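Working notes for the structural subgroup meeting. M.R. asked for a predicted model of this chain before we commit to crystallization trials. I am recording the input and output together here so anyone reviewing the notebook later can reproduce the run.

Input as submitted:
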Amino acid sequence: MIKQIGELILPTPPRVESTLTERYQTTIPASVRRVLRLNKRDKVSYEIRSNGEVILTRAVASVEPSLNLEQQLLEVLAQDICSHPEHLQSFEAEVMKRSKMLVQDVKVDLEKPLLEDEE
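Returned structure, recorded in token form:
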């Protein structure tokens, strides 16, 4: 089976197994590491579902505390897009048409400095 994830195109088996050691440790198979883009010392996250399934994903890095709220949101969105490109969807034509209609008479000067209360 060939699977494309973002820009990666990998021959990925539908299921991959690994064995637990005496200390309940395992090696993440190379095909899984490639798909999740894992490197040494990266963290993984386990999502435990009520039906007994466990979903393994690359852990989202913590956001810098010095970033403002907007920057934090953009960072989280960027990480989510990189981790789950399959979730991206395009806008339907009607939504785009309605959006353009709502802002058709709005004029924005991107070079004009913001007033203090607009920042």
